[in-house]
Amino acid sequence: MDEIILTARTVEEAEELALKELNADRSEVEVEILSRGKAGFLGLGAELARVKVTRKGAVQERAPAPAAVAPAPVEKAPPDGDAATLALETVTKILAAANVNVSGTLRASHDSEADGPVIDLTGEDSGLLIGRRGQTLQALQFLVTSIVRTHHSDVSRVVLDVEGYRNRREVALRDMANKVAERVAQTGRSITLEPMSPADRRVIHTSLSSHPSVTTESIGVGENRKVTIMPRRKK
Q1: Same domain, 95 and 150
Q2: pLDDT band of 61, cuts 50, 70, 90
Q3: Which of 46, 78, 101, 109 could form a disulfide with 40 if both were Cys (CB 3.0 to 4.6 A apart)?
């Protein structure tokens, strides 16, 4: 074998794999970088690096590679218009830049609970937007909210929902909170839950705020912040 094309997370890793396959040193081959790959946005639209490695004795004359074309920049969302329109335009452009097949529709221009617009996201790639414990969705929501708030400071947050995920997540969290609360009430021992996003912790606190036997508090910092459910002290 005198020539091989390999893909990997980075160009360097692809080169190393190719050298092992050819059983050659770096000085014995020529490397043509076919693609440097890209990390993607929020883990979406990522591409692997791709290289072509050929033994020097087997190099054949080939046409020069076409000049690389720089990707068109993503247009900034215009500052004019209402917050809901700006939010929808912003998330649409972000998803297009990430090459994700998902479309957004405006559910509410201003939801009283969220104190901002609510946008539903649907499409064949919608599952990619959720991430582990909803982390990808939270990151995308934070980014869109930050952009919208630069032009509409009265908006508290933009809520993004993927095919009813938030409602299903909230129902599951409330169910878990009540089950853990009953266990704490029976044993008299506190239980600390796994790290959660601020939105998930809010659901736990709200669900148990009027529970007669337990109380809750958040502990930890950053991504490790958790909710502890503990016995309510008797007065």
Answers
A1: yes
A2: very low
A3: 46
Query: What are the structure tokens assigned to 4, written together?
Result: 């091989």
Domain extent at residue 37: 3-56
Distance, in Å, from the CA atom of 73 to the CA atom of 90, rounded to the nearest integer, reads 14
Residue indicated by tokens 């959720």: 130
Picking from 163, 187, 218, the residue at the C-terminal end of a domain is 163
Domains in the chain, number: 3
Give the residue from 40, 56, 72 where a domain finishes.
56
Residue of 43 and 203 predicted with greater confidence: 203
Same domain, 184 and 150: no
The CB density around residue 129, as the number of other CB atoms within 10 Å, is: 26
Here the tokens at position 187 are 């044993």
Tell the burial category of 109 from Cβ atoms under 10 Å away from its Cβ (0-12, 13-18, 19+): middle
pTM: predicted TM-score of the whole model, two decimal places: 0.54
Q: How confident is the model at residue 217 (pLDDT cuts 50, 70, 90)?
A: very high
In a domain, 70, yes or no: no
Say how many residues make up the chain. Answer: 235
Residue reference for tokens 């396959």: 21
Handedness of CA 39, 44, 45, 49 (dihedral sign): positive
